[in-house]
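Blackboard transcription, Thursday session:
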Amino acid sequence: MTKESERSTIADVARRAGVSKATVSRFFNHRETLLTPEIARRVELAVAELGYSPSPMAQSLKRGRSRLIGLVVADITNPYSVAVLRGAEHACREAGYLVMLFNLGNDLERESAGIRALTSYKVEGFILNTMGHDAGAALETARQGKPVVLVDRLHRGLEVDFVSLDNWQAIELSGGHLLEAGYRDLLLVTEPLGTVSSRIERVQAFTQFVDATPGTTGACYESRAEDPSGLDAALLQLRQRAKGPCAVVSSNAVVSLRIVAAAARQGWRLGGDIGLVGIDDTPWAPYVGPGITAVSQPTDELGRLAAQCLMQRLQGLQAAPRSILLPGTLHARGSTQR
Amino acid sequence: MTKESERSTIADVARRAGVSKATVSRFFNHRETLLTPEIARRVELAVAELGYSPSPMAQSLKRGRSRLIGLVVADITNPYSVAVLRGAEHACREAGYLVMLFNLGNDLERESAGIRALTSYKVEGFILNTMGHDAGAALETARQGKPVVLVDRLHRGLEVDFVSLDNWQAIELSGGHLLEAGYRDLLLVTEPLGTVSSRIERVQAFTQFVDATPGTTGACYESRAEDPSGLDAALLQLRQRAKGPCAVVSSNAVVSLRIVAAAARQGWRLGGDIGLVGIDDTPWAPYVGPGITAVSQPTDELGRLAAQCLMQRLQGLQAAPRSILLPGTLHARGSTQR
DNA sequence: TTGTAAGCGTTATCAT
DNA sequence: ATGATAACGCTTACAA
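(Written on the board underneath:)
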């Protein structure tokens, strides 16, 4: 490998091998079908000597395809997003794609900007885990035939592949477990619903679960980080209205931590004074208080499947939009033991 | 904005405005200096009507610059990496750059592959938070004059800007706090050192702290996730050798959780039976056991500074490699109260 | 089977 | 001040 300061180009290889640029290009794209073994060997040698590899930028410009996948996440700080990202990145790379990441930092308005930025780099497809608030660009993208996969959150009007936890199953699992443990009066705490489909769906599932289960009562509360005292009030109200043991279902790990904090403020023991089961298992869940009961999501799998859907579409799959729902798994711990 | 299915090109704009492609290009690159207001207005109008924006790919091909920054992280699952990533991405975007992410997934061997992949996309600079194990490509990159910034971990032989927690300060802070709280016999637990400079440095700092502080004893243990019983043994040994109260300094949040788990296995109370202070604060630290005392890193700031260094180099700054060390902040909690 | 040449969407160097 | 034109590194008709 000679050490030129500049990267060598297809022309360098052609010159060195004594062939045309076209032949070198063929070596990379149709080696088996179009090339004489002898020529192929010469090219191969020159490529090795120069340490040449094609410029994806130039290829992209010519082909209109980039081997790039755009991944837009609402908030890279969210461990769930990260876990999905991880799975997706892995699958993409295995398929020869690189991931371009755009983080919204929870700034709703930037969704279209992000999609456009990635579009301009000619990404071949999108994986979206966003708020679905400002989906104009996403819609346009899909209309242009670029594959889009939604993770965890649906966008209304956007009929594309969708990969997510089965929220109904997860809520039923949580609720059923609480019942078995003897809790009767329940409160679902979620982040502000906004237009986030997964949050809304969990509320719906919860409401239906309570309605369908005689002897239980339920309510919902939207908690925001800036307003811990609102949460305190909601929890106090739960305890007041409860005739028997009461429990909280938390909509994600961030909220679970808020509940834990609130319980600490009130001096309540988790499990005994108030039950808690949360969606999203975390490495620390077993060690907080008596251990937090949680429903884990198969996050890696979700990311992997999202990428896989995209790959299939890129290979031309024309089936109707699919909806892939994966079940969660309950991990019972002290926070649901009375 | 007319809705063509294809993105419009500079040629479309030129035609529409009745000018040449060169003029449109000038409109974007040297508007003030080279264009008649009248012409500029016509171009501006055409651009708006067509919703045109230049193709970064084509620009990149022509200019040899891509407005892309390559970010290589050892493990996207690590919250520290994510936090840094977040800060860096933000700063890059503000400067008009997009981040291309390459995650090693803790696969040491892939470092060069990642750097090469990103290089082929003509990223203009690198932010590296990796193991430094396989730095061949990084070295080559730096030699080619592409700016590189290292975060948290040095690579030997690679003399470039470096941004990190001040590990000496952080360890001294932790150790000092333990002393004040009355702990005398200390154990530093870290992930396997390998070639990771930050881990090594923390051990050095710890050793020196113990040596320089009469009346204390210290030891180090390298803990691996697969071997919890090894950790148990190390902790038992600590308690045996300890004449008075003993405590553990944990090298990062993952290890802290392992210590917590080990203490739980032994039935020890954190703080009373064994002290614990960890580097890396986390949202859950206050709620695990009696609360885990931790030294927080200014992660956002670290990422921001890394990106900022890069931007300065991209603007031609030729100063000698800088080393930016930021102090940590102690958050005292129950795990260091006897 | 291989080479020639046009063109992907830009920018930069010439002219004008 | 503006326009024609040649690159940037690659792929792909079309020719040979």
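Lecturer's comment: The longest helix of chain B spans residues 79-94.
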